[in-house]
Amino acid sequence: WLPREDAPAVWDALAPKAHRVPFSRWLAHRIRAGYVDLSPRTAGEYVPQALNLQALGQIAFDKGCYLGQEVVARMQYLGKVKKRLFRFSIEASAGACPELGSPIHAGDPEGDEVGEVVAAAPDAGRCELLAVVKVDRAEDALFVGRTPLRAEALPYEVPPLREKAS
């Protein structure tokens, strides 16, 4: 966000009023805000609506041309999202968090696979995480490995898809 050579002077100016925190704290704050950063693991895996991008104002359905626009618009106006982004937390012993792509199971640790972890970061003895989960299973008891997930609220509402015109 600034030229590398300017960083020491900026830090010296900020240091009397700021303190260093681990990068994981920044990631945990983004997760609590419901933002998922695409990675090689998640890029191309989900339609934008599955990552709640429409709720964050990051999709414009009324303008632009981009690769996959027809599929995204069709999902918005005619389809139904079967999976979407949900926020969870777990107690994190020694700051351990599940790996990206870790499967989410419903019912018990060996139950049906219903989603996967797309973001995780330790903060204050907990692990904050976002997972794309089947909507119809999101209220089940969910596990990552043998650890139960605690559902957490997102700070925004996910608007429903538009009803198909009759």
Short key terms for the protein model shown above:
166 residues, alpha+beta, seven-stranded antiparallel sheet, 16% helix
Explain what the structure shows.
The protein has 166 residues and is α+β, with helices and mostly antiparallel strands. Helices cover 16% and strands 25% of the residues. The chain has three helices and seven strands. It has a seven-stranded antiparallel β-sheet with strand order 6-5-2-3-4-1-7. A hairpin with a 6-residue loop joins strand 2 and strand 3. The N and C termini lie far apart (49 Å). 27% of the residues are buried. The model has no long low-confidence stretch (mean pLDDT 85).
What order do the helices and strands follow? HHHEEEEEEE
Helix/strand-derived class?
alpha+beta
CA-based shape: flat
Helix content: 10-25%
Number of helices: 3
